[in-house]
Specification:
about 575 residues, alpha/beta, Rossmann fold, 3 domains, six-stranded parallel β-sheet, about 40% helix
Length: about 575
């Protein structure tokens, strides 16, 4: 029997779960856990703020599929972790948070840096636990990883008091059966009901205007290959939510890209006119549906999701299927093949494809190029980044206009190359997530696209990138405003710009980047864009920040105003006359 401290058991348990990286920041209550890290094979990345640790863990999980791990101390450190926990919860990202807690005898006394971490994080984790005995640590770790990575993925949290880390225990490692026995109510359904799958196949073979509405659940299920099989088998167009970009290659003519509030006009229109939506791992988010009552009014719905709570939450499906997206889609492919071999033929999809092609020609995603001497167009900067990016580049983004432009103007050709904050919409996500992604895939180039508002929230993590030798590349689209807020104020608040202007002078982003050990480059004219990007791509021993001075008047189009029907879609001003003519 091996005796060890709870802290040693914690680190050994993480090693047993094949953790190779922890993102964190030490402090009083978690300090005992940092001592055995000195002898561990696990690499620790020392962040500058605990929120950064959480977003790095998310970025790592996005690109690897393995749970990211963030370890911080009690009190304010734990509360700083709440935002990334909620972000991971909304976007179904596997993540394990480990927080220190005051000693068991001091819990409830308002001790220094005490907070009810389990209570605070209950609504933003799949599972959380206050571990009250060193003997319970291995099981707590096994349960946390099991729940984070099974069923609908998501964040879990272990809160460990300081004395529990210091006390001794006898080492053991729970078996799979012991873990399952400790969770009698946790039995995710993965296979999908055979009768429902047969019904879904029948509907697909009857539909004249079908669409595959693909969400992030297909990426979480590692289902890109079987999605390709389904598309090749049926010839049905694919729409991908913001969280699913890359699950199907943008270069394929059957990929319509992103629908919804800021999606492609032709994609949103196709969804509205569809007679069958085959929802694979999406949750009918309000940014996709617009006003729910008028969303895809003529469409029947097949909804595949591993989370039974999603069935009927927003749109009642005609065929609900609870199960793993990959496993269910594999069975769906088999059923469709059986129907085809039995003589059942699909309707001719030619007229539907022709209509979609027409919408695509009439309403391409567009913008007006900048005149010589005027401010840069952010879309042009992104297109240049895309064209010059090395193969397999991973793109992360913050939240706002630059996030929407990234999704609209980048071309995603493979899964797990797009990392962003979808459901929670967390400003400041991009830079720490890029660092986490680079840790997970050090062989890839990682570009972080950020706005000046987002950049100022978490740019201190560039120090982490420098000191820890994790070189990323940052494209900072600086329009001196909180761009998306300014767009809304201009369009819906009579141009009453309230507290939205940042500054054209401060900070000096090049000097800021250089002070953090990065290469800083400023770009102000179109002819400077490509050379700056090429220079950034050639530097791989440290982080590069390019500040693009962009046009503050530029807006994201298309746009569905909040609370309105998708039929009220606003197109780019240059396309308004065409839209009016067709209305």
């Amino acid at each position: 029997m091996t005796r060890m401290t709870g802290a040693q058991a914690l680190i050994k348990s993480l090693e047993m779960e094949n953790v190779d990286t922890i993102f964190g920041l030490p402090g009083g209550c978690i300090l005992p856990a940092y001592d055995p890290l000195l002898e561990s094979s696990i690499r620790h990345v020392l962040v500058r703020h605990e929120q950064g640790a959480g977003h790095m863990a998310e970025g790592y999980a996005h690109v690897t599929g393995r749970p990211g791990v963030a370890m911080v101390t009690s009190g304010p450190a734990a509360t700083n972790l709440v935002t990334p926990l909620m972000d991971a919860y909304m976007d179904s990202i596997p993540m394990v948070g480990i927080t220190g807690q005051v000693a068991t005898g001091a819990i409830g006394t308002d001790a220094f840096q005490e907070c009810d971490t389990v209570g605070i994080t209950r609504s933003c984790t799949k599972h959380n636990e206050l571990v009250m005995s060193a003997d319970d640590i291995p099981m707590a770790v096994r349960v946390a990883f099991h729940i984070a990575t099974t069923g609908r993925p998501g964040p879990t949290l272990i809160d460990v008091p300081k004395d529990v880390l210091e006390n001794e225990m006898t080492w053991y490692w729970p078996s799979d059966d012991e873990v399952k026995a400790s969770l009698p109510g946790y039995r995710p359904n993965t296979k999908g009901h055979p009768r429902m799958i047969k019904e879904a196949a029948k509907l697909i073979m009857q539909a004249e205007r079908p669409l595959l509405y693909v969400g992030g659940g297909m990426l979480k299920a590692r289902a890109a290959e079987v999605l390709r099989e389904l598309v090749d088998l049926t010839g049905i167009h694919v729409v991908t939510t913001l969280m699913a970009r890359g699950v199907f290659p943008d270069s394929d003519p059957l990929n319509l890209g992103m629908p919804g509030m800021h999606g492609n006009a032709y994609t949103t229109t196709a969804m509205q006119q569809s007679d069958l939506l085959i929802n694979l791992g999406a949750r009918f988010d309000d940014r996709i549906t617009g006003r729910v009552g008028s969303f895809a009014p003529h469409a029947k719905v097949i909804h595949v999701d591993i989370d039974p709570a999603e069935q009927g939450k927003v749109r009642k499906p005609d065929v609900p299927i609870v199960g793993d997206c990959r496993l269910v889609t594999e069975e769906l492919v088999k059923e469709i093949i059986a129907l085809q071999e039995g003589g059942v033929a699909q309707p001719d999809l030619g007229p539907w494809k022709s209509r979609i092609s027409g919408w695509r020609e009439q309403f391409p995603t567009t913008y007006e190029q900048s005149e010589p001497g005027n401010a840069l167009k952010p879309q042009f900067c992104l297109e240049q980044l895309r064209e010059l990016a090395p193969e397999g580049t991973i793109l992360t983004s913050g939240v706002g206009q630059h996030q929407m432009w990234s999704s609209l103007h980048w071309k995603f050709e493979e899964p797990y190359t797009w990392v962003n904050s979808g459901g929670l919409g967390t400003m400041g996500f991009s830079i720490p997530a890029a660092i986490g992604a680079k840790m997970g895939r050090p062989d890839r180039t990682v570009w972080a696209v950020d706005g000046d508002g987002c950049f100022q929230m978490t740019a201190q993590e560039l120090v982490t990138a420098t000191v820890e030798r994790i070189p990323i590349k940052v494209a900072l689209l600086n329009n001196s405003y909180l761009g998306m807020v300014r767009q809304w104020q201009e369009m819906f608040y009579d141009e009453r710009y309230s507290e939205v202007y940042l500054s054209t002078e401060y900070p000096d982003y090049v000097k800021w980047a250089e002070s953090m050990g990065c290469v800083g480059i400023r770009v102000e004219s179109p002819e400077e864009v490509a050379p700056a990007i090429e220079k950034a791509n050639s530097i791989n021993d440290r982080t590069v920040v390019i500040e693009f001075r962009t046009d503050s008047n530029e807006k994201v189009f298309p746009m569905v105003p909040a609370g309105r029907s998708n039929d009220d879609l606003l197109v780019h001003p240059t396309q308004t006359a065409i839209r009016d003519r067709l209305a």
